[in-house]
């Protein structure tokens, strides 16, 4: 079986590899600004589906073996707003001044297609995908103004949804989470496992990279 990660995210790729999976990466390149939704949780699901559908459609005519295609999208919900990657240092600074000492929810949308060689439609119809969201509450610490400036100077906050990482330089300022850790990084392994099984496959069907035992 092929497992295609429709994401440019190094964090998602690293999460899958550490979990023993050997994914292929095909970046979707979709315009994320073209999508709106009534809530952050619905928005990340719509964006994940957009990314996965674009890559599935690019593959559908050459599928020669069962192929899973996964798209994801992560955003931080704070005061009802969906916060993706900050557009500027000034925006990242303001976010940290707003977030410190408070809690927010990191939502990651997941969309998974199972393409088979069975002849069928010449396109991957979105309704055939499994779509779901995992949500993790994040309680932020209280970085000082100087610590915020030092963190901004690393450049990391500009490249990640919510302007923070839990497993990187932002870890100093994440006090606690309620929910799945990897979901904050960008991909929920238990949710993905459930979606794979809902499509009739097992973890042992995934292409493995030699880490850890094959599990069924
Ligand atoms: N390592 C790490 N990365 C994080 C964390 N929180 C968010 N991110 C990253 C994961 C994703 O690469 C990025 C979220 O942005 P998107 O969901 O739009 O994905 P991205 O644009 O990176 O790639 P994609 O749109 O999927 O091709 O932020 C974290 O706690 N740790």
TrEMBL record:
The reaction(s) this protein catalyses: a ribonucleoside 5'-triphosphate + H2O = a ribonucleoside 5'-phosphate + diphosphate + H(+); a 2'-deoxyribonucleoside 5'-triphosphate + H2O = a 2'-deoxyribonucleoside 5'-phosphate + diphosphate + H(+)
Its EC number(s): 3.6.1.9
Principal location listed in the UniProt entry: cytoplasm
Enzyme class: hydrolase
Top-level taxon of the source organism: Bacteria
Keywords on record: Cytoplasm, Hydrolase, Nucleotide metabolism
Cross-referenced Pfam families: Maf
Localization per record: Cytoplasm
Active-site residues, record numbering mapped to chain: 73
Required co-factors: a divalent metal cation
InterPro entries assigned: ITPase-like_fam, Maf-like
Family: Belongs to the Maf family.
Purpose: Nucleoside triphosphate pyrophosphatase. May have a dual role in cell division arrest and in preventing the incorporation of modified nucleotides into cellular nucleic acids.
PANTHER family: BIFUNCTIONAL DTTP/UTP PYROPHOSPHATASE/METHYLTRANSFERASE PROTEIN-RELATED, BIFUNCTIONAL DTTP_UTP PYROPHOSPHATASE_METHYLTRANSFERASE PROTEIN-RELATED
NCBIfam families listed in its UniProt record: maf
Protein name, UniProt field: Nucleoside triphosphate pyrophosphatase
Source organism (scientific name): Jatrophihabitans telluris
């Amino acid at each position: 079986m092929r497992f295609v990660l429709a994401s440019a995210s190094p964090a998602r790729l690293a999460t899958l590899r550490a979990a023993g999976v050997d994914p292929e990466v095909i970046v979707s390149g979709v315009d994320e600004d073209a999508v709106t939704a009534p809530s952050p949780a619905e928005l990340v699901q719509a964006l994940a589906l957009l990314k996965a559908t674009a890559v599935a459609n690019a593959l559908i005519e050459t599928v020669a073996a069962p192929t899973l295609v996964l798209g994801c999208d992560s955003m931080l919900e704070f005061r009802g707003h969906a916060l993706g990657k900050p557009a500027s240092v000034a925006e990242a600074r303001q976010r940290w001044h707003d977030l410190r000492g408070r809690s927010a929810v990191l939502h990651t949308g997941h969309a998974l297609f199972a393409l088979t060689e069975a002849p069928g439609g010449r396109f991957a119809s979105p309704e055939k995908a499994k779509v779901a969201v995992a949500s993790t509450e994040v309680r932020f610490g209280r970085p000082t103004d100087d610590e915020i400036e030092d963190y901004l100077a690393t450049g990391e906050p500009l490249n990640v949804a919510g302007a923070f990482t839990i497993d990187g330089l932002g870890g100093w300022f994440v006090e606690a989470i309620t929910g799945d850790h990897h979901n904050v990084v960008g991909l929920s392994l238990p949710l993905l496992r459930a979606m794979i099984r809902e499509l009739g496959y097992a973890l042992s069907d995934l292409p493995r990279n030699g880490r850890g035992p094959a599990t069924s």
